[in-house]
Amino acid sequence: MANSSKNMEQHHIESSPLVIEDSFEGYPLNYFNLPLHYRDDLKSVLIPYGLVQDRIEALASRIFSDLHIHIPEQLICMCVLKGGYRFFSDLVSKIQNENRLRNDRSLPMSLEFIRVRSYVNDRSTEAIDIIGISDLSSLNNKHLLIIEDIIDTGVTMVALKKELEKYNPKTIHVVSLFTKRRTDKKCIFKPDYSGFEVPDHFIVGYALDYNEYFRDLEHICVMKESGITKYKVQDGDKVE
Ligand code: HPA
Ligand code: MG
User: Fold this and answer.
1) Is 216 in the active site?
2) What is the pLDDT of residue 8?
3) Residue 39 belongs to a domain with what CATH number?
4) Given 41, 90, 149, 152, which residue is catalytic?
């Protein structure tokens, strides 16, 4: 343990995502304990639950070190439901661990939960409604950390951040567990903190859904085409 304090200071946790390469097809299903009701719908396990937890612990540590300096007041941790609920819960509890174990610094938090409904407005641009906070003007002069499951096109996050900026919070940081490396379009939003960059597959599990299925799955998995067909919503019914 010689030089341990020096090494600790030099250890800098990445805020940018751990890249899962296109060439990585995931782990075979039969090495994992998976719910029977989804086994036939999945192709592979892309990111096991344990790795998700380890990366969240590292993100919590990085966020704690970055934000306690700037934020002596409460940090409002804003959970974007539904997909963000497990990430939010694990991230907040890991920041709480940092708070409990350190006597030299702290990061007080308060918790908010929102849902975002997006639609195309009459000017054919993306518009959103924020549901869950009755009075958004309470965000005035506050520090915000938006906690999101996945940034795919980035369109929703751009609109959400723009909407929240209207209420003049002092700072807004965004953490997303996943960012998607899109092959067609470029993603238009880069979060301040991200857990993993994933290939352009539809991923499910750990509260991420496909039409409300697969939230009750621990690991981050890639779906089979047959699974996508099986749970497809008819008539273009949009499920958020
Ligand atoms: N999985 C689940 N939800 C999503 C995804 C995804 O890959 N992209 C955007 N929302
Ligand atoms: Mg969803």
Assistant:
1) no
2) 53
3) 3.40.50.2020
4) 152
